Fold this protein.
Amino acid sequence: MRKIIVAGEPGGSIPETKARIEEAWSANLFDHTGGTEIGAHGMTCQGQCGVHLNEGEFLIEVINPSTLKSADEGELVLTNLGRIGSPVLRYRTGDHVRMNRNVCKCGRTFARMEGGIIGRIDQMLIVRGVNIFPSSLESIVRSFPCVQEFRVIVEKVNAMDELRIIVEVAGENPADVVKAIGREAAHRLGLRVGVELAAQPLPRFEMKASRVTDKRIGLAQAHFAQGAVISNKME
């Protein structure tokens, strides 16, 4: 195994998750993005400096999803130029991206998404005024190699939003790992996060992962996010 191309889940652009996959397989990992309605539109190059957008086949825009004005960070909007049968004009992907239009070290001039697709616009968690994408939580957890699996729960406690991360830890001193994750989460997010040790093995996923449950929302629906699906199911 020399190269791995991943799609569908955002792990290929989360540095901590990417590193764990590459170490496990002893291979280089490349991210690939696309959509059923618009086709494949992004790929990681050898420079590994983000995901290039194929501007030979797409017109690329990024807008502020609230004001609809052009922005460097916001929602990705695509118009496909060469797709026969399902052309789309200014298609709002719902993907939150951060654009870099400088020439890449690989030599390509195509614009690229720093960090790939950061998350889905409608899946961003707002906890005590802090905007959090599930991919940010995965980045924190995956920086600890001893964590085998994790789950995130957001709920109201005494009228206040609370975010908890439940982790399954392998090896010795799991309590120390739990404390370290809490400190790292507080440092990166600027928010106190509760971290707990799982009382039993957490579910594994072969397809779309479902790791985030927002108990503040009563509607039963599921959304895919970078490394996670937010499941709005009441327990």
About this structure: The radius of gyration is 19 Å. The longest strand covers residues 147-157.
